């Protein structure tokens, strides 16, 4: 597959681009956070979605370079928003490979300091799978990152295989309920029960909750009533490139 050889060049030549999807603070009805989602703006093929090239990066040992690019770009974006008077916390997705790499974790902490980005402005989203394969190492790395002030979030919660025993031990701040439980929430009683009990569990463990995959107003209101902290989904906005995101943000308040 041609893309394998091109990905290295893409990272080096800045062909990657970050799109931003807002996370709404449900109590305050304010956009305080975004999730950064990478795309590849390929010179011949146009925008390539991450599902196409993240697995390639994983198979070809390029996740380290890719995630470092994403975090570096997110730090630059943080400052571009600051210049516009916008105070935004940015969440980036890190892969299982990144979490297993001690050098990577130190790099993140140093990079934030070097780029003058407050650690509190950066969230790392980690899937359950990244934890399951080596829980002991994951706990060690997460502890280091969190001790240094980063916010840690468990992504796609409910789709993986982590046990409640593992969840209890994880030094994280936030759970993101997977969109598969949220998209049809009001039509599906089982989803309501799952989301309600996940909120209760998370809150009892001292974790904040983000519901992703909100596609309509009624679902947003239902989640707000149940004291879910944050909401994300197409009802609010799809992931947008910088300029479009800024325009959307300007119109949304
Ligand atoms: O943005 P979209 O819905 O197309 O993303 C599809 C998948 O790609 C999601 O699972 C998302 O987490 C993943 N993804 C998007 N950006 C990144 C990234 O920068 N790093 C990693 N590891 N995964 C990402
Ligand atoms: O795996 P992760 O949670 O990082 O995936 C995030 C992806 O989910 C984003 O690429 C985004 O495009 C997608 N997404 C976000 N909100 C919605 C939504 O409301 N509906 C659907 N179908 N997908 C969404
Ligand atoms: Na994510
Ligand atoms: Mn997710």
Automatic annotation (TrEMBL):
EAL domain location: 1-253
Source taxon at top rank: Bacteria
Protein's recorded name: cyclic-guanylate-specific phosphodiesterase
Organism taxonomic ancestry: Bacteria, Pseudomonadati, Pseudomonadota, Gammaproteobacteria, Alteromonadales
Full-sequence range covered: 523 to 775 of 777
């Amino acid at each position: 597959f041609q893309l394998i050889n091109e990905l290295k060049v893409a990272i080096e030549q800045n062909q990657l681009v970050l799109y931003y999807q807002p996370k709404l603070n449900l109590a305050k009805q304010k956009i305080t956070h975004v999730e950064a989602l990478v795309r590849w703006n390929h010179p011949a093929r146009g925008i390539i979605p991450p599902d196409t090239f993240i697995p390639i990066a994983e198979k070809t040992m390029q996740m380290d370079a890719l995630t470092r690019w994403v975090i570096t770009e997110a730090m630059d974006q943080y400052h571009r928003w600051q210049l516009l008077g916008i105070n935004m916390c940015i969440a980036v997705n890190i892969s299982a490979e990144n979490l297993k790499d001690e050098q990577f974790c130190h790099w993140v902490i140093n990079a934030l300091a070097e780029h003058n980005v407050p650690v509190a402005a950066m969230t790392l989203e980690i899937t359950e799978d990244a934890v399951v394969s080596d829980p002991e190492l994951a706990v060690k790395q997460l502890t280091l990152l969190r001790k240094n002030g980063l916010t840690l979030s468990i992504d796609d919660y409910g789709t993986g295989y982590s046990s409640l025993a593992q969840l209890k031990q994880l030094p994280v701040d936030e759970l993101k309920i997977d969109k598969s439980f949220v998209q049809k929430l009001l039509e599906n009683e089982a989803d309501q029960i799952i989301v309600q009990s996940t909120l209760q569990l998370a809150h009892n463990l001292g974790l904040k909750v983000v519901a992703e995959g909100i596609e309509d107003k009624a679902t947003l209101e239902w989640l707000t009533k149940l004291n879910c902290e944050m909401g994300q989904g197409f009802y609010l906005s799809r992931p947008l490139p910088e300029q479009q995101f800024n325009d959307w943000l300007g119109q949304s308040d």
